Amino acid sequence: MCDALGIVNFSGTNIRVRGMEDYRPIGAFSFLGRYRVIDFPISNMSNSGIDRIQVYIRRKPRSLTEHLGTGRHYNINSKRGKLHILFAEGKDENDIYNTDISAFLENMECIERAHNPYVVIAPSYMVYSANFDTLLQNHIDSGADITLLYHSVDNAKEAFLNCTTLNLNRQKGVLSLEPNRGNAKDRKIFMDTYIMKKDLFIELVKKAKSLSSMYTLADVVNAACNELDVRGISHRGFFASITDLESFYNANISLIDFKTATSLFDNENWPVYTRTNDSCPTQYFETADVKSSVVSNGCLIEGTIENSVIGRGCVIKKGAVVKNSVILPEAIIGENVTVDCQVVDKHAKIIHAKEIIGDPKRPGYIRREDTL
Amino acid sequence: MKQNNMLAMILAGGRGSRLHDLTNKVAKPAVSYGGKYRIVDFPLSNCANSGIDVVGVLTQYESILLNSYVAAGRRWGLDAKDSGVYVLPPREKADANLDVYRGTADAISQNIDFIDTYSPEYILILSGDHIYKMNYAKMLAEHKTHNADATIAVIGVPMNEASRFGIMNTDEEGRIVEFEEKPEHPKSNLASMGIYIFNWKLLRKMLIADMKDPDSNHDFGKDIIPQLLNDGKTLYAYKFKGYWKDVGTIDSLWEANMDLLDKNNELDLNDPTWKIYTEDVTTLPHYIGPDAKINRAFITQGCIIEGEVKNSVLFTGAEVGPGAKIIDSVLMPGVKVEAGAVVQRALVADGIKIGKDAVVGSADSEHIELVAKRVKGVE
Q1: ipTM score here?
Q2: pLDDT at res. B98
Q3: Closest residue of A to B287, CA-based?
């Protein structure tokens, strides 16, 4: 039993995912066909035995609140447990003062009222699996004040560009948190995941306000690195930070490879929960030709699909070719249409445009409910 | 209940012995169908979609799985206040001996006390092992318009098959004048679907009398309906149009699955206005490998396909290894077909493994092969 309050945090104003984020926060992005990005942090918490979870929402709450609902589908105890959705109220969505700190302050009484002695804070915009119970045990045993989770990467020059990196000493002590400026390929990317005592968390949040009204939690932890024992702990396995359209696209496409998928999913021991839509199975017709793809339920498939992720309830008509693309739920790809290297948003219909071809380095984006 | 004053009772005690090994451990209503469903999901979802919110499920044969499955009324949205799915196996009572359900009517008789707690005006009797979508609210509306004592849903069957069914002979208005069980020379092709609406007060009286009758089979078709007609009660037929299947045999269960492969098939499981609800399983979407070949198939979440799938239905978590071929077949939940194996005109039961390069079933067999035991691979 993991005696921590779970906090699912939102992305800062420095992060903007082209197109998709106009409609919903990153946590609500459809992911790998049947999931939403936020299913990963919440399932991690639920599987770790955390059953009091607060989800903070900065902007556009509609799709996220609809998806989360009462949180019953995340397998948290329906009486003892609680999935609490909290808003940063009364602020413009892109206001520089609309920080996580201001949201925590506004909801401080809810944080203070929780009985748990520890907090685990995870981002709603990163995809990974981690056992917070083990990490909390590690944290307690190490005697550190704050434990930060990081992932070592070797492509920080071209990816993770709006992420934070950890500057560690040899003993894994955190010297500072710095933005990834893309000037070195090997970096320790901060997974925006924190473990600490709840009292310390409250203290830091209150302190942040007095230091700067624009401070985020990462800023105040960075400022505290000198006085506190802040340590990094390395994460292994699949990790994706959904912080621009390219990373969203790449994370989906890379999980088409079943081996990669098994480094994220372990259905027996670590299930990823999501809200069911009660769609029927997918129907493949005579003319279907599908290879190297992940397909969700409720689709009608007559065309060709290769190296793509197909969301729930999509229609791929005769002669259509979908390649290297991420198709979000309920999109329609019409007859003889070719789509390559695209992210096609929910309910889009591509009927008239016969060829939409992008570049894998910079995938194209087709807006929600657009008819082309 | 408040919505329409009608309570539904689903008869789900039957074994379905012609399904052989498939129903060794589970009752027929719990048999898997259509990739992700169990047969009993159909009457339960129909109830939920028709605005019926109290449903009793009468279980008897191998009921452990079925009992726990239907008790989770939340799956069908039947968990609001004053709503619920009640599992009703035979039970011991203060004033009667513990007795198995002796027939369809007896199953209801033994639960008169349960039904009385709701004191409904109407009662809907359903079978737990039929696959169809029906709006019972429409049937109830007709029942009320006719001021009937009972209404029986019927479906037109081909005349040459009519002698296999219970046939209703009606007048021009649809009033039932005669009921014939499996007639040698049928006068009409309207077969009873085993779906009845009764006025509860009347049925209650009849059931109490039927319980005491030593010559009765305690069966709706054999005893209650003929008695009602004898008594000159008003019985109407409610004509149903659409897909309806009673999957009694392996062949017909296979066929019902194959029906789903047709474009615009009548059952239309994709209809967003009449969804069939079922257990929510936590699995990945289905994975299709680089060398897979799929045409005409119905595939659900959790499947992993590396080989060839043609004219087949794959249930939750079925796996098809590299080079394996699945043709004209049904793979039930969790079936694993290893590399190079060939499965043809077969129905493979839940969780069965088919080893490397094994060959199961054949293209020209008369009947569908049921595979209910592990098939060893070729060494």
Answers
A1: 0.91
A2: 75
A3: A294
